[in-house]
Amino acid sequence: MELIFYITAAITLISTIMVITRHNPVHALLYLVISLLSLSVIFFLLGAPFAALLEIIIYAGAIMVLFIFVIMLLNLGKETAIQEKEWLKPKVWIGPAVLSVILFAELFYLIGIPHQTSPVLQTVDSKVVAISLFRPYLIGVELAAMLLMAGVVGAAHIGQHKKLVFHRFLKEEEKT
Amino acid sequence: MMNTTLQYILMIVMVLFVLTTIAAWLIWLERRMLAVWQNRSGPNRAGPFGLFIVVADTIKLFFKEDWIPPFADKTIFVIAPAIVAATVLMSFVVIPFAPGILIADLDIGLLFFLAMSSLGVYSIVLGGWASNNKYSLLGALRGASQMISYEVFMGLSLMGVVMLSGSFRLSDIVLAQKDCWFIVTQPVAFVVFLIAGIAETHRLPFDIPEAESELVAGFHSEYSGMKFGMFFIGEYLGVTLISAMLVTLFFGGWLGPAFLPPLVWFILKTFVFILFFILLRASLPRPRYDQLMSYGWKILLPVALLNLLITGGIVLMMTK
């Protein structure tokens, strides 16, 4: 089990690094999908199969498809790849690299401290998730629903417009 | 320990073999049945009833030139057809064919099916994009929006079934139908799932990403040889998958009168639905793209939500 965890963790890290360093946006997004998939495997290993599958259904299966959809519509060609290449000069890396090394050192230190109690893995199935969502955290669910509703209404408002019908022979006429 | 592992592997190999064989012969079945319904003869030369046309087709696919267009994004172009076959085959992992004949009885089997079918979109999107061809790109765009939208209703329509059976585990769902199949208690969910399933497998009449009369062949215009074959097999596997899911969720899975073994019942019921899919292809014209989308969001979504609400209310009343 531990070996599988380390392998998936390595895949997650490598694919996330690849997301940042790719010049072609679609390739970068594909690595992001792989990173999400491996994250869901980690969720599964940690005993949260419900969260793992939601990660795949929502993030990898819906949101990332929409991202790729938009990128496809933008039709970014070779020029963007060249532009990206120019932006990602080695100099740019120094700042983030130093900061993440500090974070890594902190993490290393924290892992080194001996634990009082070793965490016990407990599988959280869908029933447990549902009970905790709809009992103690009900307010949170309702607030999230309201927020999403606001988003939907906003999107509908932006998307709504009068359709103009252009035709070669007919006159322009308005159609709602 | 060793024995169970061996059994597992044997089961996986068996299911894989049976499925790919079925998918291949479905091509023959589809052409024959279309011919019957359209008053033609269909393929009838090679072998008895033209059965060997599948062998000829397969040999042809293997020996065709496997051409990768120079303007394509090569890696993604190669990966895309594998995704559809892989995701559909992965979905079969959770389907209980008969008591004891299933690969993994996951706690969250239904969600696993939904996850795999949502990943299947990538094959269309990436295949169309990597081809670097306007027809393919249009097909990919249509496919992406169609499949993402219909996934929503697919998931929502199934939640009524989950409520009634109280589990995401597919074998539990089958056993919950012992007294009454869910087609009786959840007819609305069945219709929504059926329509969404056709859209998910992008079969006719919803084959808008392909639409050969307007988009050449849509997202797989540039594919040839075995790569095209993968898309082709993936489509037939998808039809088998949706039929099997319909049977499992709404028609009692392997349950049936005892004079036939459970596995035979399952196969028979699935076969009926596969025939229904073929009949749809023979009889219905393709809707326009915007018609499909507005139909989905304006009719199927409210219907699925209403069904969910009413089912929830009734379940609440029954338990009190």
Automatic annotation (TrEMBL), chain A:
GO cellular component: plasma membrane
Chain segments annotated as transmembrane: 6-21, 28-50, 56-76, 97-117, 137-158
This enzyme's EC code(s): 7.1.1.-
Reactions catalysed according to its record: a quinone + NADH + 5 H(+)(in) = a quinol + NAD(+) + 4 H(+)(out)
A single GO molecular function term of this UniProt record: NADH dehydrogenase (ubiquinone) activity
Listed InterPro entries: NADH_UbQ/plastoQ_OxRdtase_su6 (IPR001457), Nuo/plastoQ_OxRdtase_6_NuoJ (IPR042106)
Subcellular location: Cell membrane
Superkingdom as given in the UniProt entry: Bacteria
Keyword set, alphabetical order: Cell membrane, Membrane, NAD, Quinone, Translocase, Transmembrane, Transmembrane helix
Name of the top EC class for this enzyme: translocase
Membrane-protein topology: Multi-pass membrane protein
Assembly notes: Composed of 13 different subunits. Subunits NuoA, H, J, K, L, M, N constitute the membrane sector of the complex.
Function (record text): NDH-1 shuttles electrons from NADH, via FMN and iron-sulfur (Fe-S) centers, to quinones in the respiratory chain. Couples the redox reaction to proton translocation (for every two electrons transferred, four hydrogen ions are translocated across the cytoplasmic membrane), and thus conserves the redox energy in a proton gradient.
Family: Belongs to the complex I subunit 6 family.
Matching PANTHER family: NADH-UBIQUINONE OXIDOREDUCTASE CHAIN 6
NCBIfam families xref list: PRK06638.1-1
Record's protein name: NADH-quinone oxidoreductase subunit J
Organism, scientific name: Pedobacter steynii
TrEMBL record, chain B:
Highest taxon of the lineage: Bacteria
Location in the cell: Cell membrane; Membrane
Residues passing through the membrane, by range: 6-26, 75-98, 110-130, 150-168, 180-199, 228-251, 263-283, 295-318
Location, primary (coarse class): membrane
Keyword Cytoplasm: no
A GO CC annotation given for this chain: plasma membrane
Cited PROSITE patterns: COMPLEX1_ND1_2
Catalytic activity from the UniProt record: a quinone + NADH + 5 H(+)(in) = a quinol + NAD(+) + 4 H(+)(out)
Membrane topology qualifier: Multi-pass membrane protein
Keywords: Cell membrane, Membrane, NAD, Quinone, Translocase, Transmembrane, Transmembrane helix, Ubiquinone
A single GO BP: aerobic respiration
GO molecular function: NADH dehydrogenase activity; oxidoreductase activity, acting on NAD(P)H, quinone or similar compound as acceptor; quinone binding
EC class name: translocase
EC identifiers of the protein: 7.1.1.-
Subunit field text: NDH-1 is composed of 14 different subunits. Subunits NuoA, H, J, K, L, M, N constitute the membrane sector of the complex.
Role of this protein: NDH-1 shuttles electrons from NADH, via FMN and iron-sulfur (Fe-S) centers, to quinones in the respiratory chain. The immediate electron acceptor for the enzyme in this species is believed to be ubiquinone. Couples the redox reaction to proton translocation (for every two electrons transferred, four hydrogen ions are translocated across the cytoplasmic membrane), and thus conserves the redox energy in a proton gradient. This subunit may bind ubiquinone.
UniProt family annotation: Belongs to the complex I subunit 1 family.
Name of this protein: NADH-quinone oxidoreductase subunit H
Species of origin: Pedobacter steynii
Gene this chain is encoded by: nuoH
